[in-house]
Amino acid sequence: MRVKRFSTGLRATLLAIFTVTVFVTGTLAATEKVLHNFQSNFRDGFNPDAGLIFDGSGNLYGTTFYGGPTGGGTVFELTPKAGGGWTEKLLYSFIGGSTDGLFPYAGLVFDSSGNLYGTTQSGGAYNYGTAFELTPKAGGGWKEKVLHSFNYPNAATPWAGLTVDSSGNLYGTTPFSGPYGGGTVFELTPKAGGGWKEKVLHNFNGSNGKDGASPVAGLIFDSSGNLCGTTLEGGTYGYGTAFELTPKAGGGWTEKILHSFGGKGDGSEPRAGLIFDDSGNLYGTTSSGGSDGYGAVFELTPKAGGGWTEKLLHSFIVNGKNDGNSPVSGLVLDSSGNLYGTTQYGGTYYVGTVFELTPKAGGGWTEKIVHNFDSNNHKDGYSPVAGLIIDATGNLFGTTYSGGTYGYGTVFEIKP
HSE (CB half, 13 Å, CA atoms) of 297? Predict the structure, then answer.
């Protein structure tokens, strides 16, 4: 059974590659190209909720929540063709039941050996989702293995993807389980003799007015080995938190709340994770809050004497068609220090945008809409609910949940 969604759903599938030129305030801003249109034909996945990752050869990998021969979602690869365009290949189609996962909501991560890891929201031995591994076969193709079946009331029903450390351990979050019902942070560790062991590192207790609750995004490591993330709810004001988990010398982890979001005037309800810049500052989005209540981009800066200072870099506003709103995905940083992200709604056609935030020389940030998704031309995708990735030349790649030639979502590229 599918849990609560953030996106609206129409349909979409595979066909043309096209180019659309977008103008912002009279200047050429960006060129968007759809690399793949998903379709509901039992041979393709459709409705991708998650973003993409690259391998070392420039191939793209992602998941779709639905589709494939059994309808339970897919893992796909897009490979660039020598003469232009991209070829899609399904690496795996989920079948559910007691032995396999079902409905992958989150994206993927590679380990140092080239194996892919991810999660599913449902399926597995207890029907509370799985963590899975895809291993490339010597003769071609990929082999899937379920590493862990989640089970309520422990960590259950993961919405977010996994983070891998240098030792090959996997870390993630679940939003609703644990003894307090506020969700968990978990670790999966490979056993010497085979298999994996799950350990809950933290149980969120949002009912105490201090801790966060309902983490729906993944985690990142800082340079000291601490884990950082967000919760959708909880904290001092009930509007979510940014938190840090620090490993103890004798074992276990200590949680610290870096910021409790305060609602309108501050951000609220962060649905996405965090990123670091080279100076150790954290950046993220909130799906609501800000000056108009339609979401914000924030920065958390560590103080010299301890603690963190939060600053809103941009509040999304509903001012006609000039801004996006409701960002439910995270950010990506380019080599010049500019931030890029997506909004699920807003923009010229009210169905989402790609935006850029550029730091000003004298302080502050300037927002620019890089692309307005268009639900009217049946070529462009719309309703992006995942974040972006950036290649070495500054091109942006992402997915839309809906739209495209068949209405079931797209993979797109934007050349700024």
Answer: 28
What's residue 30's pLDDT? Answer: 83
Indicate yes or no: pTM above 0.85: yes
| Under 8 Å between Cβ of 17 and 384 | no
HSE on the CB side for 10, CA within 13 Å? 19
List residues bridging with 243 in a β-sheet.
229, 257
Rounded to whole angstroms, the Cα distance separating 397 from 414 reads 6
Q: Tell the burial category of 202 from Cβ atoms under 10 Å away from its Cβ (0-12, 13-18, 19+).
A: buried
Q: Which two tokens stand for residue 324?
A: 């996006």
**Residue 97 tokens, joined:** 């039941």
Helix (H, G, I), strand (E, B), or coil: what is residue 235? coil
Whole-angstrom distance, CA of residue 149 vs CA of residue 159: 14
Contact (CB, 8 A) for 365 and 357: yes
* 3-state SS assignment for residue 376: coil
Torsion angle of the four alpha carbons 46, 391, 372, 266, in this order, in degrees rounded to the nearest 10: 100
Dump pLDDT digits (tens) for 30-44: 899 999 999 999 999
Q: Return the number of other C-beta atoms located less than 10 Å from residue 361's C-beta.
A: 5
The rounded distance, in Å, linking the Cα atoms of 70 and 60 is 23
What's the average model confidence in pLDDT over 312-338? 92
Note whether 51 and 58 are within 8 A (CB). Answer: no
Please, are residues 60 and 53 in contact by the beta-carbon 8 Å criterion? yes
140 token code pair:
């071609």
CB 280 within 8 A of CB 302: yes
Query: Is the distance from CB of 338 to CB of 358 less than 8 angstroms?
Result: yes
